[in-house]
Design a protein that fits this description.
Elements (H helix, E strand, L loop, with lengths): L1 H27 L51 H12 L5 H21 L2 H4 L5 H16 L3 E20 L2 E17 L5 E4 L5 E12 L8 E6 L6
Antiparallel strand pairs: 1-2, 2-3, 2-4, 4-5
Length: about 230
């Protein structure tokens, strides 16, 4: 009697298993058109470059190099200063406007600080011989008068290229610095002769830097300073 029940159980479970298999096949065995083939799960092959137009076939041996981007700090190419920058870059392809301006900013801070301190050794490598002589004479005159200059460079608020050109093999760039400074001249006893240590004044300077592009020396020297005309 028990053997009969076991046989019926086996038959029943077999029928249930068959039913489940059929149901699974009816769901998983169908293709909806959205399946991906096994090879589609592999890494995508490299994208081939777009085919060149037929009229470009003659230039197949030419490799186009990325064009140098013009710095936002550069004057428009249609201006004399912009044309000068282009001429400098033609003479020196490594010329980088942003790098030049960063170096000029650092040089401005060093020169202003060294001049106030009377540090000729720090000034000499940054100045042309003519400008160094002028700065040195002013420092010596201050020393003979027993006076000292205290300058605090609060910050550089503006820096722009106002002139640029080639003079033979020499590149010349003039920059306008707009800075905020405190300047005080004291006598040998420390009394204030000129200026106010609490007064932050706006100062505008135009400095010209020059470099010989025919040499491997990458350094620029300060060759001229002037106070710009307010009408400009």
């Amino acid at each position: 009697m028990n053997d009969g029940f076991h046989f019926l159980d086996i038959v029943f479970f077999a029928m249930v298993a068959a039913f489940l298999v059929l149901r699974l096949r009816s769901v998983l065995g169908k293709r909806t058109g959205q399946e991906r083939r096994p090879d589609q799960w592999q890494a995508a092959p490299p994208v081939k470059p777009a085919a060149k137009p037929a009229d470009a076939a003659a230039g197949d041996n030419v490799i186009e190099l990325p064009r140098a981007r013009r710095s936002a700090a550069e004057p428009s190419p249609s201006t004399p200063a912009g044309a000068g920058i282009a001429a400098i870059r033609a003479a020196d392809p490594d010329f980088d406007t942003d790098g030049f301006l960063a170096g000029a900013r650092a040089a401005f801070e060093m020169i202003v600080t060294a001049y106030a301190a009377g540090d000729k050794a720090a000034l000499q490598p940054l100045l042309s011989p003519e400008v160094f002589r002028q700065f040195s004479d002013a420092i010596e005159a201050r020393r003979r008068a027993g006076e000292s200059l205290e300058t605090e460079l609060v910050g550089i608020k503006g820096l722009e290229i106002v002139e640029a050109r080639m003079e033979g093999t020499h590149a010349l760039v003039t920059l306008r610095f707009t800075s905020e400074q405190t300047n005080v001249v004291r006598d040998s006893h420390g009394a204030i002769v000129e200026g106010d240590p609490t007064l932050v004044a706006g100062v505008v300077d135009e400095w010209s830097f020059r470099r010989d592009t025919s040499t491997r020396d990458p350094n620029w020297a300060l060759v001229a300073t002037r106070t710009p005309d307010p009408e400009r």
